[in-house]
Amino acid sequence: MAATPARAALTIVMSVALAAPATAGMFDDEEARKEIIRLRDNYGARLDQLETTSRAQFELANELEALKAEIAKLRGQIEVLGYQVDSSDKRQKDFYVDLDNRLRKLENSALTTSAAARPIDPVAEARDYEGALGLLKAGKNREAGAAFEAFIANYAGSSFLPSAYFWAGNAWFQEREAARASDHYRKVAELWPDDPRAPDALLGLAQSQQAMGDNKGAKETLARILETYPDSSAAQMAKQRLGRR
After folding, report:
1. What would the pLDDT profile of 140-166 be if each residue is shown by its tens digit?
2. The CATH homologous superfamily of the domain defined by 121-242
3. If we measure between CA atoms, which residue out of 114, 178, 171, 118 comes closest to residue 148?
4. Which residues 6+ apart lie within 8 Å of 202 measured at CB?
5. What CA–CA distance (Å, rounded) separates 235 from 189?
6. How confident is residue 68, by pLDDT bands cut at 50, 70 and 90?
7. According to the model, what pLDDT value does residue 113 have?
């Protein structure tokens, strides 16, 4: 074990004291006592200096520990704030989803009310629908898209509406207007989920999303087909596009 400064000083003082008789020829008793006192005072001052330094180091160590505790406390507060922000974002998203659902219900209700309020001429209805379908068969996609949109606006209560929306989506997709096509496909899937064309409408929606660069949305739509309409021909197509067996 290394000797402490105090023990070293005491050893030196004792050594000098013991050596005093041997050096009687050089110093008398009075001079020896003075030398011992001088040495003692000198090493005493050094001891005081060492104690002051040790005390300063101890205080510095305490300050470092206090600083570490404060940093740990701040990290905890940051984690709590991060959790609160994430929770706030989730609540906000849930709110918008709920609001969107409510607006869609109101929209469906408005369509039903409008259809009940205005009588439909079945002859004009069949004529306009067949006319729009004829344009599509002739490859006049832009004219067909506009004709189906006019049909939708004029015959809000028509039983042809799911098909009109679906074929309007096809027409605009052929014209490479994917965003416009996706709106029509989405209407079919959301307003008439039990219609025979609903699975194919979702397939068209996925194609439109992919054309717009929304690959994530397209995969989600294809997965929705598999989940909602697993026995449909559209589900088989969805499996192929998702690379599933």
Report:
1. 999 999 999 999 999 988 999 999 999
2. Tetratricopeptide repeat domain (1.25.40.10)
3. 171
4. 185, 189, 221, 224, 225, 228, 229, 234
5. 14
6. confident
7. 52
User: How many Cα atoms are found within 13 Å in the side-chain-facing hemisphere of 25?
Assistant: 1
pLDDT band at 1 (very low <50, low <70, confident <90, very high): very low
Give CA–CA dist 190/163, Å, rounded. 13
CB 191 within 8 A of CB 201: no
Query: If you write DSSP's letter for every residue of 164-196 in order, what string do you get?
Result: HHHHHHHHHHHTT-HHHHHHHHHHHHHH-TTST
Q: Which amino acid is at 103?
A: L
pLDDT bracket for residue 69 (50, 70, 90): confident
Residues in CB range of 201: below 8 A, 6 or more apart: 165, 166, 169, 185, 186, 188, 189
Query: Is the distance from CB of 225 to CB of 203 less than 8 angstroms?
Result: yes
Residues 232/199, Cβ–Cβ less than 8 Å: yes
Average of per-residue pLDDT across 77-83: 71
Runs of H (alpha helix) within 118-176: 122-137, 141-154, 161-174
What does the domain layout of the chain look like in residue ranges? 5-73, 121-242
DSSP-derived secondary structure letter, 121: -
Q: Hey, what are 5's tokens?
A: 């400064």
DSSP state of 4: P
Burial of 41 (0-12, 13-18, 19+ CB in 10 A): exposed
